[in-house]
Write a structure and sequence with these properties.
Blueprint: E1 2-5, E2 8-11, H1 19-34, E3 39-41, E4 46-48, H2 53-67, H3 70-75, H4 81-88, H5 92-108, H6 115-133
Antiparallel strand pairs: 1-2, 1-4, 3-4
The structure holds zinc ion.
Amino acid sequence: ATYLINSKWYIVYNDTEPRQRSRFTVAHELGHILLGHIMCDKHYARTFDTSRPTIEQEADVFAARLLAPACVLWALNVHTPQDISELCDISLAAAQVRSERMEILYSRNKFLQSPLEKAVYDNFKEYIQKQTAK
Ligand SMILES: [Zn+2]
């Protein structure tokens, strides 16, 4: 969960969960913050209204895009859930969902069309070159 207390954000997660799950949870919470989701008052702090399935889905999509950017998977020709899980350090379950989405994106083959995606790609360019040189 994420709380806004005295103008500071606090992401609270269970650090006894596997690292991959924790990474996704923190990325999901960052999604709520950065997507500007509507907050509600809880008894001791303001937090996100998790009763709205739409914002939960948006935060999940944000997390998947942050941790497993499509243009990077495409550049490295990564397809399987196992490979996505290993490369992006996300759970196999999350990688399965990402893999299904990637297959749609691969069939469309419209990577690097938007300036934002090009910027992401440029940030990963050196990494991609190192990976493909192996
Ligand atoms: Zn959430």
